[in-house]
Amino acid sequence: MILVTGGAGFIGTSFILDWLAKSDETIVNLDKLTYAGNLQNLAVLAEDPRHIFVQGDIGDAALLAQLLTKHQPRAIIHFAAESHVDKSIHGPGDFIQTNIVGSFQLLESVRAYWEQLEKPERNNFRFLHVSTDEVFGSLAKDEPAFTEQHSYEPNSPYSASKASSDHLVRAYHHTYGLPVLTTHCSNNYGPYQFPEKLIPLMIVNALAGKSLPIYGDGQQVRDWLYVDDHCRAICRVLEAGTPGETYNVGGWNEQPNIDIVHTICDLLGELHPAASLDYRALITYVADRAGHDRRYAVDAHKIERELGWRPVETFATGIRKTIQWYLDNQDWLNNVQSGAYREWIETNYHQRSV
Description:
Helix content: 40-55%
CATH topology: Rossmann fold
Order of helices and strands: EHEEHEHHHEHEEHEEHEEHEHHHH
Largest sheet: 7 strands, parallel
Number of helices: 13
Distance between the termini: 51 Å
CATH superfamily: NAD(P)-binding Rossmann-like Domain
Strand order of the largest sheet: 3-2-1-4-5-6-10
Shape: globular
């Protein structure tokens, strides 16, 4: 039995589907079901006894104690987080509450549970914290990629809140001995990603014939990681990672945002041609995000060297699979674009000057 937090979100969904496709070990999925959490993602598991869904908050100490006592998990995989930079700029409070205070409460509850385990179970227990490369700040064009030893320099309320949770996780290992593992991933993409992020937003808007808003000059560089590769890395770190260690998980694929959008437009032209529409013609440059980091890139040699993990998908194969999934799942797209989503898009994009 393992307990997953945030399992109805994008990466959590992919992890659970991947885990249960390969294992009979039960997952308890604790998710608050905020705007980006979607049980429809896990509809195929509705009758599967290996998936136990609990709607709840990682900050609810009584609920956490109940779940841990009842299910006796051998590991916690902590995905639950507010994760969108733009939302953190408009309203940082939710990020502080979930990513810092919520993670603290989760750690406190897990520590109390872990300390009462018998020695064999204590030794084998793991707490895996899923973090981000954004805690390291921004890189210049020719700087080497972030290693696990890079100093923290977060530049947004989101990345600052994740950096804070990282420090708490580290402190609980060094102070209390809690066997923790931390991963820092680069930008994920793939099926089930909520269309506030770059790739699904571009796909959704292009299919609707709407403008494709590009921040600033579009030359912000990110390393792109297909979500299934990320989930394989998490499984490998859980299986063989050294407690107290951190592992960078990257896709070895740095590209400027504008190149990503050009690729999406060209693939849509191939997979979903529109008779009178050139998808690239929809590209519109808008005012940049406040404090926008110029470049992220992670050096993922450590996880390859020590644990034997390397991404399977190239960006060319991963983005084609991603676009095809969105084309094949129009009902899912329509369902997630609620009034709250439309209000957010209006707030973040339509008020930006072109």
